[in-house]
Amino acid sequence: MFAPAYFDHNATTPLDARVLEGMLPYLRQHYGNPSSRHEYGRAARRAVDEARQRVAVAVGAHPTEVIFTSGGSEANNLFIKGVAATLRPGLMAVSAIEHPCVREPAMQLQRAGWQLREIAVDTDCRIASADFSAVLATRPAVVSVMLANNETGVIQDIAQLAAHARSSAQPWFHTDAVQAFGKLALDFRELNAAGVHAMTLSAHKIGGPKGTGALVVDKRVDMEPLIAGGGHERGLRSGTENVAAIVGFGLAAELAVAQRPLRAARLKALQQQLEAGLDARGAVIFAELSSRLPNTTYFAFAGLDGETLVAKLDRAGFAVASGAACSSAHPEASRVLRAMGMDHELARGAVRVSLGEGNTAAQIADFLAVLDSTRQQLSGLTSLGSSRSTAMENV
Questions:
Q1: DSSP letter string over 270-333?
Q2: In the prediction, which pLDDT does 346 show?
Q3: How far apart are CA 318 and CA 14, in angstroms?
Q4: Are both 192 and 168 inside the same structural domain?
Q5: Whole-angstrom distance between the N-terminal and C-terminal Cα of the chain?
Q6: Among 210, 222, 226, which residue's Cα sits nearest to residue 78?
Q7: pLDDT digit string (tens) for 234-254?
Q8: Catalytic residue among 24, 184, 326, 368
Protein backbone atom coordinates (compact mmCIF):
# COMPACT_ATOMS: atom_id res chain seq x y z
CA MET A 1 0.00 0.00 0.00
CA PHE A 2 1.54 3.31 -1.11
CA ALA A 3 1.28 6.40 1.07
CA PRO A 4 -0.36 9.38 -0.69
CA ALA A 5 2.11 11.86 -2.17
CA TYR A 6 1.59 15.45 -3.28
CA PHE A 7 3.43 16.13 -6.56
CA ASP A 8 1.70 19.37 -7.61
CA HIS A 9 3.72 22.14 -5.96
CA ASN A 10 3.61 24.39 -9.02
CA ALA A 11 -0.14 24.66 -8.45
CA THR A 12 0.23 25.48 -4.76
CA THR A 13 2.39 24.56 -1.79
CA PRO A 14 1.46 23.50 1.75
CA LEU A 15 1.40 26.38 4.22
CA ASP A 16 4.65 26.30 6.20
CA ALA A 17 3.95 25.75 9.92
CA ARG A 18 6.28 28.63 10.82
CA VAL A 19 4.38 30.92 8.50
CA LEU A 20 1.06 29.94 10.04
CA GLU A 21 2.44 30.56 13.52
CA GLY A 22 3.51 34.05 12.49
CA MET A 23 0.12 34.79 10.95
CA LEU A 24 -2.06 33.67 13.87
CA PRO A 25 -1.63 36.80 16.05
CA TYR A 26 -2.97 38.89 13.15
CA LEU A 27 -6.03 36.67 12.88
CA ARG A 28 -6.72 37.02 16.61
CA GLN A 29 -5.47 39.77 18.89
CA HIS A 30 -3.82 42.13 16.35
CA TYR A 31 -6.91 42.80 14.27
CA GLY A 32 -6.48 46.54 13.63
CA ASN A 33 -6.91 48.24 10.26
CA PRO A 34 -3.47 49.41 9.03
CA SER A 35 -5.00 52.76 8.05
CA SER A 36 -6.31 53.50 11.55
CA ARG A 37 -4.41 56.06 13.66
CA HIS A 38 -4.76 54.30 17.04
CA GLU A 39 -2.38 51.68 18.43
CA TYR A 40 -4.36 48.78 16.96
CA GLY A 41 -3.91 50.29 13.51
CA ARG A 42 -0.29 51.25 14.08
CA ALA A 43 0.54 47.67 15.09
CA ALA A 44 -1.05 46.39 11.87
CA ARG A 45 0.83 49.01 9.82
CA ARG A 46 4.14 47.98 11.37
CA ALA A 47 3.41 44.35 10.49
CA VAL A 48 2.67 45.26 6.86
CA ASP A 49 5.80 47.40 6.64
CA GLU A 50 7.97 44.63 8.09
CA ALA A 51 6.52 42.12 5.63
CA ARG A 52 7.15 44.51 2.75
CA GLN A 53 10.77 44.80 3.88
CA ARG A 54 11.11 41.00 4.01
CA VAL A 55 9.73 40.53 0.50
CA ALA A 56 11.92 43.33 -0.85
CA VAL A 57 15.08 41.86 0.68
CA ALA A 58 14.18 38.41 -0.67
CA VAL A 59 14.17 39.67 -4.27
CA GLY A 60 16.74 42.47 -4.13
CA ALA A 61 14.23 45.30 -4.34
CA HIS A 62 13.51 48.45 -2.34
CA PRO A 63 10.43 48.22 -0.08
CA THR A 64 8.78 51.14 -1.91
CA GLU A 65 8.87 49.03 -5.09
CA VAL A 66 6.72 46.26 -3.56
CA ILE A 67 2.97 46.62 -4.18
CA PHE A 68 0.89 43.98 -2.37
CA THR A 69 -1.98 42.42 -4.33
CA SER A 70 -4.37 39.50 -3.90
CA GLY A 71 -1.98 37.22 -5.81
CA GLY A 72 -0.07 36.70 -9.02
CA SER A 73 -3.10 37.07 -11.29
CA GLU A 74 -3.97 40.49 -9.93
CA ALA A 75 -0.34 41.61 -10.06
CA ASN A 76 -0.08 40.61 -13.73
CA ASN A 77 -3.37 42.34 -14.54
CA LEU A 78 -2.26 45.44 -12.64
CA PHE A 79 0.85 45.79 -14.76
CA ILE A 80 -0.68 44.90 -18.14
CA LYS A 81 -3.82 47.01 -17.78
CA GLY A 82 -2.33 49.63 -15.49
CA VAL A 83 0.48 50.56 -17.87
CA ALA A 84 -1.78 50.38 -20.92
CA ALA A 85 -4.15 52.88 -19.32
CA THR A 86 -1.42 55.53 -19.31
CA LEU A 87 -0.39 55.04 -22.95
CA ARG A 88 -1.93 55.58 -26.33
CA PRO A 89 -3.04 52.21 -27.78
CA GLY A 90 -0.13 50.55 -29.50
CA LEU A 91 1.53 47.15 -29.72
CA MET A 92 1.77 44.78 -26.76
CA ALA A 93 3.99 41.69 -27.05
CA VAL A 94 3.71 38.67 -24.75
CA SER A 95 5.33 35.29 -25.11
CA ALA A 96 3.28 32.44 -26.57
CA ILE A 97 3.70 30.47 -23.32
CA GLU A 98 2.41 33.06 -20.84
CA HIS A 99 -0.01 32.17 -18.07
CA PRO A 100 -3.62 33.10 -18.91
CA CYS A 101 -3.49 35.94 -16.36
CA VAL A 102 -1.03 37.71 -18.69
CA ARG A 103 -2.45 36.64 -22.02
CA GLU A 104 -6.13 37.27 -21.22
CA PRO A 105 -5.79 40.90 -20.06
CA ALA A 106 -3.59 41.55 -23.09
CA MET A 107 -6.36 40.14 -25.29
CA GLN A 108 -8.97 42.28 -23.52
CA LEU A 109 -6.99 45.39 -24.40
CA GLN A 110 -7.51 44.65 -28.08
CA ARG A 111 -11.05 45.96 -27.61
CA ALA A 112 -9.51 49.28 -26.56
CA GLY A 113 -7.46 49.53 -29.73
CA TRP A 114 -4.27 47.72 -28.68
CA GLN A 115 -2.59 45.24 -31.00
CA LEU A 116 -1.34 41.95 -29.55
CA ARG A 117 1.66 40.03 -30.84
CA GLU A 118 2.73 36.70 -29.38
CA ILE A 119 6.46 35.98 -29.25
CA ALA A 120 7.24 32.50 -30.56
CA VAL A 121 9.16 29.82 -28.67
CA ASP A 122 11.19 26.94 -30.08
CA THR A 123 10.64 23.22 -29.51
CA ASP A 124 12.62 23.49 -26.26
CA CYS A 125 10.22 26.15 -24.92
CA ARG A 126 12.80 28.93 -25.19
CA ILE A 127 12.06 32.33 -26.68
CA ALA A 128 12.88 32.18 -30.39
CA SER A 129 15.58 34.84 -30.77
CA ALA A 130 14.80 35.63 -34.41
CA ASP A 131 11.12 36.18 -33.65
CA PHE A 132 11.94 38.24 -30.58
CA SER A 133 14.10 40.51 -32.71
CA ALA A 134 11.32 40.73 -35.30
CA VAL A 135 8.85 41.73 -32.59
CA LEU A 136 11.17 44.41 -31.24
CA ALA A 137 11.55 45.82 -34.75
CA THR A 138 7.83 46.65 -34.66
CA ARG A 139 8.49 48.74 -31.50
CA PRO A 140 6.06 47.34 -28.91
CA ALA A 141 5.15 49.63 -26.04
CA VAL A 142 4.87 46.77 -23.55
CA VAL A 143 6.60 43.36 -23.41
CA SER A 144 5.90 40.52 -20.97
CA VAL A 145 7.93 37.31 -20.83
CA MET A 146 7.68 34.86 -17.92
CA LEU A 147 10.88 33.95 -16.10
CA ALA A 148 10.06 30.25 -15.65
CA ASN A 149 7.21 28.38 -17.29
CA ASN A 150 4.64 26.83 -14.97
CA GLU A 151 4.21 23.71 -17.14
CA THR A 152 7.62 22.82 -18.56
CA GLY A 153 9.70 24.62 -15.91
CA VAL A 154 11.87 26.15 -18.67
CA ILE A 155 13.84 29.21 -17.55
CA GLN A 156 14.24 32.20 -19.86
CA ASP A 157 17.27 34.50 -19.84
CA ILE A 158 15.17 37.49 -18.84
CA ALA A 159 18.10 39.83 -18.26
CA GLN A 160 19.39 39.22 -21.79
CA LEU A 161 15.93 39.60 -23.34
CA ALA A 162 15.28 42.81 -21.43
CA ALA A 163 18.66 44.24 -22.39
CA HIS A 164 17.93 43.49 -26.04
CA ALA A 165 14.55 45.18 -25.75
CA ARG A 166 16.02 48.24 -24.04
CA SER A 167 18.66 48.65 -26.73
CA SER A 168 16.05 48.77 -29.47
CA ALA A 169 12.36 49.40 -28.80
CA GLN A 170 12.68 50.54 -25.14
CA PRO A 171 9.32 49.09 -24.05
CA TRP A 172 8.07 48.71 -20.50
CA PHE A 173 9.29 45.18 -19.76
CA HIS A 174 7.53 42.85 -17.29
CA THR A 175 8.29 39.32 -16.14
CA ASP A 176 6.02 36.89 -14.33
CA ALA A 177 8.39 35.33 -11.77
CA VAL A 178 5.74 33.44 -9.79
CA GLN A 179 7.20 29.99 -10.50
CA ALA A 180 10.82 31.13 -10.26
CA PHE A 181 10.50 32.70 -6.81
CA GLY A 182 11.87 30.36 -4.14
CA LYS A 183 13.46 28.05 -6.71
CA LEU A 184 15.90 30.48 -8.34
CA ALA A 185 17.90 33.41 -6.98
CA LEU A 186 16.08 36.63 -7.90
CA ASP A 187 17.62 40.10 -7.86
CA PHE A 188 15.28 42.81 -9.05
CA ARG A 189 18.01 45.42 -8.89
CA GLU A 190 20.11 43.48 -11.40
CA LEU A 191 17.10 42.74 -13.59
CA ASN A 192 16.03 46.37 -13.41
CA ALA A 193 19.50 47.49 -14.51
CA ALA A 194 19.19 45.16 -17.50
CA GLY A 195 15.82 46.61 -18.49
CA VAL A 196 13.13 44.78 -16.47
CA HIS A 197 10.63 47.28 -15.05
CA ALA A 198 8.24 44.98 -13.15
CA MET A 199 8.13 41.46 -11.69
CA THR A 200 5.24 39.42 -10.34
CA LEU A 201 5.39 37.26 -7.19
CA SER A 202 2.92 35.04 -5.32
CA ALA A 203 2.95 33.79 -1.72
CA HIS A 204 1.25 30.42 -2.06
CA LYS A 205 3.95 29.05 -4.38
CA ILE A 206 6.60 29.39 -1.63
CA GLY A 207 4.87 27.98 1.46
CA GLY A 208 2.87 31.13 2.13
CA PRO A 209 -0.89 31.71 2.24
CA LYS A 210 -3.21 31.90 -0.75
CA GLY A 211 -4.70 35.30 -1.50
CA THR A 212 -1.63 37.52 -1.50
CA GLY A 213 1.11 38.38 -3.95
CA ALA A 214 3.05 41.39 -5.14
CA LEU A 215 4.02 43.44 -8.13
CA VAL A 216 7.60 44.62 -7.75
CA VAL A 217 7.75 47.70 -9.96
CA ASP A 218 10.22 50.42 -10.85
CA LYS A 219 8.81 53.67 -9.43
CA ARG A 220 9.41 55.39 -12.76
CA VAL A 221 6.67 53.27 -14.36
CA ASP A 222 3.42 55.17 -14.67
CA MET A 223 0.36 52.99 -14.00
CA GLU A 224 -3.34 53.42 -13.32
CA PRO A 225 -4.78 51.28 -10.48
CA LEU A 226 -7.19 48.47 -11.17
CA ILE A 227 -8.92 49.15 -7.85
CA ALA A 228 -9.51 52.78 -6.92
CA GLY A 229 -10.48 53.93 -3.47
CA GLY A 230 -8.53 54.97 -0.42
CA GLY A 231 -5.16 55.14 -2.12
CA HIS A 232 -3.50 52.16 -0.44
CA GLU A 233 -0.25 50.67 -1.81
CA ARG A 234 1.10 53.92 -3.30
CA GLY A 235 -2.33 54.56 -4.76
CA LEU A 236 -2.01 51.49 -6.99
CA ARG A 237 -4.13 48.99 -5.07
CA SER A 238 -6.86 50.40 -2.85
CA GLY A 239 -8.53 48.30 -0.18
CA THR A 240 -7.80 47.36 3.41
CA GLU A 241 -4.71 45.18 3.43
CA ASN A 242 -4.99 41.48 4.27
CA VAL A 243 -2.59 41.87 7.19
CA ALA A 244 -2.34 38.22 8.25
CA ALA A 245 -1.71 37.03 4.69
CA ILE A 246 0.83 39.78 4.04
CA VAL A 247 2.66 38.88 7.25
CA GLY A 248 2.69 35.27 6.07
CA PHE A 249 4.01 36.33 2.67
CA GLY A 250 6.90 38.17 4.29
CA LEU A 251 7.84 35.21 6.46
CA ALA A 252 7.53 32.75 3.56
CA ALA A 253 9.74 34.95 1.38
CA GLU A 254 12.42 35.12 4.06
CA LEU A 255 12.34 31.36 4.60
CA ALA A 256 12.34 30.60 0.87
CA VAL A 257 15.52 32.57 0.31
CA ALA A 258 17.28 31.06 3.31
CA GLN A 259 16.38 27.50 2.34
CA ARG A 260 16.68 27.80 -1.44
CA PRO A 261 20.25 26.48 -2.05
CA LEU A 262 19.83 23.26 -0.08
CA ARG A 263 16.24 22.75 -1.18
CA ALA A 264 17.09 23.28 -4.87
CA ALA A 265 19.92 20.73 -4.68
CA ARG A 266 17.66 18.16 -3.01
CA LEU A 267 14.85 18.72 -5.51
CA LYS A 268 17.28 18.45 -8.41
CA ALA A 269 18.39 15.03 -7.16
CA LEU A 270 14.76 13.88 -6.96
CA GLN A 271 14.07 15.28 -10.42
CA GLN A 272 17.02 13.35 -11.84
CA GLN A 273 15.79 10.14 -10.17
CA LEU A 274 12.31 10.65 -11.61
CA GLU A 275 13.50 11.49 -15.11
CA ALA A 276 15.91 8.56 -15.23
CA GLY A 277 12.95 6.31 -14.46
CA LEU A 278 10.76 8.00 -17.06
CA ASP A 279 13.49 7.80 -19.72
CA ALA A 280 13.90 4.08 -19.01
CA ARG A 281 10.17 3.63 -19.56
CA GLY A 282 10.14 5.43 -22.90
CA ALA A 283 8.46 8.64 -21.81
CA VAL A 284 8.88 11.88 -23.72
CA ILE A 285 10.11 14.59 -21.34
CA PHE A 286 9.22 17.98 -22.79
CA ALA A 287 12.07 20.51 -23.02
CA GLU A 288 14.37 17.93 -21.43
CA LEU A 289 17.52 19.63 -22.71
CA SER A 290 16.56 23.14 -21.63
CA SER A 291 17.53 24.86 -18.40
CA ARG A 292 14.56 24.10 -16.14
CA LEU A 293 13.37 24.56 -12.59
CA PRO A 294 14.85 21.86 -10.34
CA ASN A 295 11.43 20.57 -9.33
CA THR A 296 9.46 20.38 -12.60
CA THR A 297 9.07 17.47 -15.02
CA TYR A 298 6.52 17.51 -17.85
CA PHE A 299 6.16 14.21 -19.70
CA ALA A 300 3.92 12.04 -21.83
CA PHE A 301 3.64 8.48 -23.08
CA ALA A 302 2.56 8.02 -26.68
CA GLY A 303 -0.98 6.69 -26.89
CA LEU A 304 -1.97 7.55 -23.28
CA ASP A 305 -4.40 10.36 -22.49
CA GLY A 306 -3.06 12.74 -19.86
CA GLU A 307 -6.38 13.44 -18.12
CA THR A 308 -7.07 9.72 -17.78
CA LEU A 309 -3.58 9.03 -16.47
CA VAL A 310 -3.85 11.87 -13.94
CA ALA A 311 -7.18 10.52 -12.67
CA LYS A 312 -5.78 7.01 -12.30
CA LEU A 313 -2.69 8.26 -10.48
CA ASP A 314 -4.88 10.33 -8.18
CA ARG A 315 -6.88 7.27 -7.19
CA ALA A 316 -3.57 5.50 -6.52
CA GLY A 317 -2.56 8.32 -4.15
CA PHE A 318 -0.40 10.58 -6.33
CA ALA A 319 -1.49 14.17 -6.92
CA VAL A 320 -0.10 15.33 -10.28
CA ALA A 321 -1.41 17.66 -12.98
CA SER A 322 -2.14 17.44 -16.67
CA GLY A 323 -1.10 21.05 -17.20
CA ALA A 324 -1.60 24.41 -15.50
CA ALA A 325 -4.05 24.17 -12.60
CA CYS A 326 -5.87 27.30 -13.77
CA SER A 327 -6.58 25.61 -17.09
CA SER A 328 -7.48 22.15 -15.79
CA ALA A 329 -11.17 22.63 -16.61
CA HIS A 330 -10.26 22.66 -20.30
CA PRO A 331 -8.88 19.25 -21.34
CA GLU A 332 -7.63 20.28 -24.78
CA ALA A 333 -3.92 19.95 -25.50
CA SER A 334 -1.71 22.34 -23.57
CA ARG A 335 -1.35 25.74 -25.19
CA VAL A 336 2.31 25.77 -24.13
CA LEU A 337 3.02 22.48 -25.87
CA ARG A 338 1.18 23.62 -28.99
CA ALA A 339 3.32 26.78 -29.03
CA MET A 340 6.37 24.50 -28.87
CA GLY A 341 5.12 22.65 -31.96
CA MET A 342 4.46 19.35 -30.18
CA ASP A 343 2.31 16.68 -31.81
CA HIS A 344 -1.31 17.24 -30.76
CA GLU A 345 -1.97 13.69 -29.58
CA LEU A 346 1.28 13.53 -27.63
CA ALA A 347 0.50 16.91 -26.07
CA ARG A 348 -2.88 15.59 -24.92
CA GLY A 349 -1.00 12.97 -22.93
CA ALA A 350 1.05 15.51 -20.95
CA VAL A 351 1.43 15.06 -17.19
CA ARG A 352 3.28 17.46 -14.90
CA VAL A 353 5.10 16.45 -11.74
CA SER A 354 6.23 19.39 -9.61
CA LEU A 355 8.12 18.40 -6.48
CA GLY A 356 8.51 20.27 -3.23
CA GLU A 357 9.27 20.17 0.46
CA GLY A 358 8.39 16.79 1.95
CA ASN A 359 8.84 14.72 -1.20
CA THR A 360 11.31 11.85 -0.94
CA ALA A 361 13.25 9.36 -3.04
CA ALA A 362 10.96 6.61 -1.73
CA GLN A 363 7.94 8.48 -3.08
CA ILE A 364 9.58 8.76 -6.49
CA ALA A 365 10.24 5.00 -6.51
CA ASP A 366 6.63 4.31 -5.48
CA PHE A 367 5.37 6.67 -8.16
CA LEU A 368 7.31 4.91 -10.89
CA ALA A 369 6.00 1.54 -9.71
CA VAL A 370 2.40 2.80 -9.73
CA LEU A 371 2.99 4.38 -13.12
CA ASP A 372 4.03 0.97 -14.47
CA SER A 373 0.89 -0.76 -13.24
CA THR A 374 -1.35 2.11 -14.36
CA ARG A 375 0.11 2.10 -17.86
CA GLN A 376 -0.41 -1.66 -18.10
CA GLN A 377 -4.01 -1.25 -17.00
CA LEU A 378 -4.70 1.55 -19.49
CA SER A 379 -2.98 -0.36 -22.29
CA GLY A 380 -5.15 -3.34 -21.49
CA LEU A 381 -8.30 -1.22 -21.72
CA THR A 382 -7.14 0.22 -25.03
CA SER A 383 -6.49 -3.27 -26.40
CA LEU A 384 -9.89 -4.45 -25.18
CA GLY A 385 -11.59 -1.48 -26.83
CA SER A 386 -9.81 -2.14 -30.11
CA SER A 387 -10.82 -5.82 -30.04
CA ARG A 388 -14.49 -4.93 -29.45
CA SER A 389 -14.42 -2.43 -32.32
CA THR A 390 -12.96 -5.03 -34.65
CA ALA A 391 -15.58 -7.60 -33.58
CA MET A 392 -18.42 -5.15 -34.22
CA GLU A 393 -17.06 -4.37 -37.67
CA ASN A 394 -17.07 -8.10 -38.53
CA VAL A 395 -20.69 -8.64 -37.42
A1: HHHHHHHHHHHTT-EETTTTS-B-TTEEEEE-TT--HHHHHHHHHHTTEE-BSS-GGGTT--SP
A2: 95
A3: 15
A4: yes
A5: 44
A6: 226
A7: 999 999 999 999 999 999 999
A8: 326
Q: What's the total number of domains in the chain?
A: 2
Residue 286 shares a structural domain with residue 367: yes
Q: What is the mean pLDDT of residues 51-56?
A: 98
Asked about 101 being catalytic, the answer comes back as no
Q: Do 273 and 347 have their domain in common?
A: yes
Check which CATH number belongs to the domain holding 171 and give it: 3.40.640.10
The answer as to whether 388 is a domain residue is no
Inter-axis angle of helices 158-167 and 129-137, nearest 10: 30
336 and 199 within one domain? no
Give domain status of residue 151, yes or no. yes
Does residue 195 sit in the same domain as residue 167?
A: yes
- Confidence bin at 390 (pLDDT 50/70/90): very low
Measured in degrees and rounded to the nearest 5, phi and psi for residue 161 equal -65, -45
Print the domain residue range for 313.
5-12+260-380
pTM, full prediction:
0.93
Mean of pLDDT values over 33-49? 97
Given 240, 255, 270, the domain boundary residue is 255
Residue 65 near residue 216, CB atoms below 8 Å:
yes
Q: pLDDT for 98-152, tens place per residue?
A: 999 999 999 999 999 999 999 999 999 999 999 999 999 999 999 999 999 999 9
